[in-house]
Write a structure and sequence with these properties.
Blueprint (H helix, E strand, L loop, with lengths): L1 H13 L25 H5 L2 E6 L9 E8 L2 E8 L4 H9 L2 H10 L1 H5 L1 H11 L3 H4 L6 H10 L16 H20 L2 H15 L20 H24 L10 H19 L11 H14 L9
Antiparallel strand pairs: 1-2, 2-3
Helix pairs in contact: 3-4, 8-9, 9-10, 9-11, 10-11, 12-13
């Protein structure tokens, strides 16, 4: 019996941060910066990509993605299926478009209320939430601006631009919040339809010459986004467990500030940088906390100062 318990303990220690893991721990695997990679070959030296269920159609198949760092493994899969664009088309379209979506993606219909709330959190909606509304991307920009400039902070100028810290922070922070407010399955689904929309060929790895030189929608960046999405989900699960977050949790400015500063701590450890913590009276904290509360209660607020 004693040896059996020791074996179980070893299994829990060895298991990394992976989508199917039941272990709830703060991820120690380092997040990835797209600006650290200049080619697919450089990416593959760090991230393993395995393509299965291949066909002649470059938009069909499954890519298995694994990334091991600091003794933990991030694992994710992306398969062909509906995209963010399909959901938006059905939302804006006819009843036939909605029925078609229900047959193709019943889960999207099941979580339609969650999708609607996440859509509002992820985008600025000044007509609903006031002129100075904030969204996930604003949080990412604010986090980047809070980085203290030291010799380790910015290896190149590109790190301070959109494809650097901002993109990494945007994906991880958004996925952590979605996982904590809703759940991991919803966060994973949102991430998958988003990545399929931007580059459906990710599932097969069959990229055109144009794809491989596109500086805006580059395969390397998209694969890194998938890894960072998974890290965000692991971080969200950890914080959800630590703070016992549920549908009744009140996202006050104090709690929102504490939650986002936990994410800052992860970034600081991950990139060996220093980040100035948010303060409760920061405008972005006050506005985003009120936005979460309004959306959770299906209300809106206007012109909050």
């Amino acid at each position: 019996m004693k040896s059996y318990c020791i074996l179980l303990a070893l299994i829990f220690i060895i298991v990394g941060c992976n989508h199917n893991s039941t272990t709830i721990q703060k991820p120690i695997c380092k997040a990835l910066l797209a600006t650290d990679f200049n080619s697919m070959d450089e990416l593959k030296s760090v991230v393993n990509l395995n393509y299965i269920n291949q066909s002649d159609d470059s938009c069909k198949g499954t890519v298995q993605i694994s990334y091991t760092n600091q003794g933990q493994t991030i694992y994710s899969e992306l398969s062909d299926g509906i995209s963010e664009g399909d959901i938006m088309k059905a939302h804006k379209g006819t009843i036939l478009d909605k029925v078609s979506l229900a047959f193709k993606a019943p889960y999207a219909v099941k979580i339609r209320n969650e999708l609607s709330k996440i859509f509002m959190l992820s985008r600025r909606r000044p007509t609903i939430f006031g002129e100075n509304d904030v969204a996930f991307y604003d949080l990412a920009q604010a986090s980047m601006r809070n980085i203290l400039v030291t010799k380790n902070s910015f290896k190149t100028v590109r790190d301070s631009l959109e494809k650097g810290y901002i993109n990494t922070f945007n994906h991880i922070t958004a996925q952590a919040l979605i996982t904590a407010i809703f759940n991991e399955d919803v966060a994973y689904y949102i991430a998958s339809v988003h990545e399929r929309f931007h580059m459906p060929h990710l599932v097969s790895g069959k990229f055109s010459t144009i794809d491989l030189i596109d500086t805006v929608n580059y395969p390397v960046d998209n694969y890194i986004d998938i890894v960072n999405n998974e890290i965000g989900q692991e971080l969200g699960k950890y914080l959800k467990h630590k703070y016992t977050i549920n549908k009744n949790t009140e996202w006050t400015a104090d709690f929102t500030c504490k939650f986002l500063n936990e994410i800052h701590d992860y970034y600081a450890e991950s990139f060996d940088i220093q980040i100035k913590p948010y303060k409760i009276n920061d405008r972005i904290i006050r506005r985003f906390s009120k936005k979460i509360e309004a959306i959770n209660h299906m209300n809106s607020y206007l012109h909050i100062k």
